[in-house]
Amino acid sequence: MDQTTVIAAGGTASDKDHVPAEAKGKGQGRTMERTAFAEKVLHNARGWILPIVVLAVWQWVGQAGLVSPTLLPTPVAIGESFVELTLSGELLGHLQVSTTRAALGFLAGGGAGLLLGLLVGFWRKAEAALDPSLQMLRTIPHLAVAPLFILWFGFGELSKVLLIAKGAFFPLYIQTFLGIRSVDAKLIEVARVLEFSRTKMITKLIIPAALPHILLGVRLSLGISWLGLVVAELMGSSEGVGYMIVDARQFSLTSIVFVGILIFAVVGKVTDSLVRYLETKLLKWRDSYKG
Amino acid sequence: MTSAGLLQIASLTKTFQQPQGEMRVLDHIDLQVEPGEFVTIIGPSGCGKSTLLKIIAGLDTGYSGTVLLGRKKIERPSIKQGVIFQEHRLFPWMTVEQNIAADLSLKDPDVRKRVAQLIETVRLQGFEKAYPRELSGGMAQRVAIARALLRKPDILLLDEPFAALDAFTRQHLQEVLLDIWRENGTTMMLVTHELDEAVYLANRVVIMSPRPGRISRIIPVDLPYPRARASASFQAIRQTVMREFEHKGEW
Ligand SMILES: Nc1ncnc2c1ncn2[C@@H]1O[C@H](COP(=O)(O)OP(=O)(O)OP(=O)(O)O)[C@@H](O)[C@H]1O
Ligand SMILES: [Mg+2]
Questions:
Q1: Other beta carbons less than 10 A from residue B166's beta carbon
Q2: Which residues of B touch A209 (CB under 8 A)?
């Protein structure tokens, strides 16, 4: 930013001789690039120190026989379980079932949240009619309705998907609604002065302005979908990663329990990173604090 | 002033409802602006300059009196009245060229051509793909001017457009604006706090007095462009404008 400010202030008539700050950064020579790369590696390496130390201590404690392997299997034992489950195809099968459930629930709930958020955001009458009831439903704890869903829809897929959908609905609904309503009034004035049509008002102003909120909603909804999945599967199922965990626990195969937990964590993280990637792509116009 | 006039304002009065009661902000304003004219408006803070411009822009319709643009009552904002605000008000998610096109499609070759021309006019070549956050205040304000000009407005309303900029950038943008005015003949109406700016740009300087806002005097500036700020004739007019304020005892 500083660079461009200086350009306009100093070189009154000759801005065209300057290149945008971004383009300039690229031509700064290789030494800069190399140090930047080394710094990045170092920065990432710093994050690995703690986990590696923890793993090493954990392995040592297990090998020394200080804790029983049924309570806390060693990292190596967990790794072996993981390889075994992967090679037999068992893990992939469970994972497929789980991700399908989570995806269905997220699409149904998140999709409904997005649509209703748009409806309520754009249309005051819909807000008056729907929002109070939805806000009331929101206060019902997510997990408390699980037994009710099982009672109504049985142990099958439907109750699981619905539970996930209920969770995924609210973040997207609230963020979409909020995003639409927080569009800068000054920009709306500009759109009026420029005689935007109703369609352009929506596509060129309101949707882009609301997009950061909507994407945040997607991230929160995905997180909750995953959480809902774990609960649904732990409560009763015959396949899926959650089932794998429950089943292994009954036979005291603790290392498999660990593999299941790890899988939940990794997949959750991966989907979150995916949305973050989408954010950096779609919101590259944003000028936010990067630390 | 016998011709039709592009902008005709007659006994324009505006009151705001405020907690303390009614407040008259504009009181019987009469003003005619001829096509191609450059009018600057200067007056103490709170005298209703922005309110006046908003009414002409069609953003405020709750007034009494008549305000006609090309003999038609102004009822809503339109691209005929281009507006430049103190802040640039660019769409942060659009690049420079997208901002200038705004609701029009850059895929349209006609629009593309006009956008490219205007980028040249406001001297922003090389920044077509830059986002507003990458621009300085002066550059962003030039984009806003180009965005208004693309709509070929009959009149360009500028509310303290350079107030937030440093002195160098401000002078540069004054030149850019004068160039545009000479080339396109767009009628200009610019509100400012700067005595110098008011005299430097205008064919006529409209001086307003505060509470309720009235036009206290209109001073013609019959100097050829480009003007020399240091010249005796320029300074003489500047003195006249300044004395008008001293009379009122409020600045
Ligand atoms: N929407 C509003 N509601 C009530 N009062 C208002 C409103 N807008 C402006 N006013 C009042 O009208 C008066 C004139 O305001 P205006 O913004 O037109 O002044 P101005 O001449 O542009 O001042 P400045 O030079 O500080 O920009 C002020 O006293 C202000 O408080
Ligand atoms: Mg003002």
A1: 15
A2: 93
